[in-house]
Amino acid sequence: MSTTEKVRKKPRVKRSSSVPGQAYGILVQEVRVLWHLMRARPGDVVAFEHVGDVSTRTADGRVVSEEDKSGLAHNPIADRAVSLWKTLANWIDARRDGSLPAAAVYVLYVAQPYEGPIADELHRCTKTDDAIELVGRLRKHFAGELQTKETITAGKSAVKKTNSATSGDESELADESPTALVKQLRRVFANDDEVIASVVTYFSIEKGTASPVNEVRSEISAHVRDEHVEEVTESLLGWTKTQVMAQIEARRVVGIPFDDFREYRLVVYERVLGKLKEFPEHTLTPQRSEIEEHLDGSNFVRQLNVLELEEEAIEAYIKDYMRASSARTSWAALGYLNPRSIGPFVEELQDHWKQSSLEVKTLDTDKTPIQRGVKLLLLCMKKETRIQKVDVPSYFSRGSFHEIANELKIGWHPDWKALVSALAK
Question: Which of 312, 329, 410, 425 has the fewest beta carbons under 10 Å from its own?
Fold first, then answer.
């Protein structure tokens, strides 16, 4: 059989439409972590996938457990939505087994502005007596589902028909089947009315605007001008995702202290408002093996060798290169440096190199190629630079020039391209 025939006969694998919804659900949770951090207070800790999709433990020990529903495929707070009753059942179980304390607060966040009569009624119920009365009415309302076996049989039949006739998200449709609904209703109403009411009185619904990120932007707009909202949002959300990922990779419970977030946010605000006065001091002590690695194989070192510089001077420039690279990462992580500002900064350095190169080429014709290369190097090494209207340390400028040279976008010796290429071989 030919390759073409094999390709033709290869069955097409249907891509599940649930994947975008699942990805969106995770993204909603990450944005909600940021939302809660922005609303938190000193001493609070916001967690991801701990005692809820997102949860907050306040400084005084109070716990807020939030479950997040994207609502892309269906209304998760409809009266007969499995997700609504499953969420309530999970909270009741957590309350009974001690995973959640008695005074915990339960929040169901729905990204889309859906309506749900029963869910809204649960939301409005804040008194114990009223909650017990409501639970009793709901028990009667779902008496048929709770007591008969026919519903389950009919539900299984409906699921089979739906799965065979539908090309959408089969797993989600099955999860919202009558069978699944009965299962979750029975989990909830297997408890005494008083137990259920103890959760209902602390239950609330938060309905989104169909864009959790826009909700964050709206919150940020109360603190900065409109032209800075996007940059601040991008910085804070990026930092939050980095914190979540780092703690997951470390196999730790993901918990972000508000105090850490506040420190980063203040720096970001200072940066975008033009109030940042200086970058923090950054020290780095490279290992001897790291220096030798650059001596053996880095392009920017080859460029310096072409100029016949002493090894001591070359090693000093290697340290500048490494320190500048480390500082960029650190300043960005701390919020002092907007990664987008690096591009214009590099363009400024390259432009200075072009002008200095032209100066040396025009005015220093009496010097040897190596002498012209050394002069061009020194003209660039003495360059005083700024990022975000803030002066940067001299090592940062020098190290940044060497990084550009390492990428072979600039050079020092008049014939640097040919010479570096020859050394690389």
Answer: 425
Our count of domains for the chain comes to 2
Lowest mean pLDDT among 109-118, 272-281, 410-419: 272-281
Triad 209, 212, 218: Cα angle to 5°: 80
Distance from C-alpha of 149 to C-alpha of 134, rounded to nearest angstrom: 25
SS3 90: helix
What lies within 8 Å, CB to CB, of 381 at 6+ separation is 397, 398, 401
**Whose CA is closest to 86, among 95, 96, 76, 72?**
76
Sequence-ordered alpha helix ranges (H) in 59-127: 82-97, 117-124
Q: Which two tokens stand for residue 220?
A: 């940020």
Residues 184 and 328 in one domain: no
State phi, psi for 110 to the nearest 5 degrees. Answer: -120, 120
d(CA 266, CA 241): 18
Q: Are 54 and 48 in contact (CB under 8 A)?
A: yes
Count the alpha carbons within 13 Å of 369 in the hemisphere toward its beta carbon: 10
Residues 251 and 315 in one domain: no
| Cβ atoms 241, 37 nearer than 8 A | no
Q: 318 and 254: one domain?
A: no
Is 250 in the same domain as 379? Answer: no
In tens, the pLDDT along 29-79 reads 999 999 999 999 999 999 999 999 999 999 999 999 999 999 988 999 999
What is the token pair recorded at 162? 């739906």
Instruction: Answer whether 324's CB lies under 8 Å from 403's CB.
Output: yes
Cβ pair 374, 391 in contact under 8 A = no
Supply the range of the domain harboring residue 310.
288-424
Strand (E) or helix (H) holding 373: helix 369-381
